[in-house]
Amino acid sequence: MRCQRCGEREAVVRVKLPQDQEGTEQILCSVCVKELAKAYQETACPSCGMTRQQVLHVRKVGCATCYSFFKEEVDGMIRQFQHGHTKHYGSRPEEESVERRLSQQLSRLKEQLNRKILSEDYEEAELIKQQILNVEEDLRHV
Fold first, then answer.
1. What is the rounded CA–CA span in Å between residue 54 and residue 69?
2. What is the pLDDT along the chain (142 residues), one digit of tens a residue?
3. Which of 5, 13, 17, 132 could form a disulfide bond with 32, CB atoms 3.0-4.6 angstroms apart?
4. What count of other Cβ atoms lies within 10 Å of the Cβ of residue 30?
5. Contact 35, 26 (CB under 8 A)
6. CA-to-CA distance for 30 and 138, rounded, in angstroms?
């Protein structure tokens, strides 16, 4: 069977082409396969000019447009880095206790209260004092 692309050489391989190229599957000769592969690797991002080959080699993209332009490659890298997942499953900092968080909030509010009293902003000081009472009440129930 002849190559469906050039029609000159004997076809040796069945290739499923990317959707942006003609047809979905063709039977091609080895020369046409190499030409298509080279053209595919040299496809460049319209914004930054980074090629598909560079993205795959460096394992990083050049700009925000690369994420959509090289979507398949980026998704593949993410799946590889995230052990098969496309959503980030990284580590999180240890959660602090509710008691500690409320104690820190109470300290900040007391500092704010002192500053408002020193600046004679008694209306704001009264609001902060109410917040302090609420946090102290929450601390009693922890």
1. 13
2. 899 889 999 999 888 876 555 557 888 899 998 988 888 888 899 999 999 989 988 988 889 999 899 988 888 888 888 777 776 666 656 666 788 888 999 999 999 999 999 999 999 999 999 999 999 998 888 7
3. 5
4. 13
5. no
6. 74
Contacts of 97 (CB under 8 A, 6+ apart): none
Question: Using only C-alpha atoms, what is the Rg of the chain?
Answer: 31
Q: Could you tell me if 53 and 63 are in contact, meaning their C-beta atoms sit under 8 angstroms apart?
A: no
Q: Which residues contact 62 (CB under 8 A, 6 or more apart)?
A: 45, 47, 48, 49, 50, 54, 55
Helical spans, DSSP H, in 44-121? 52-58, 64-69, 71-81, 98-118
Contact 1, 27 (CB under 8 A): yes
Contact 4, 28 (CB under 8 A): yes
What type of residue sits at position 6?
C
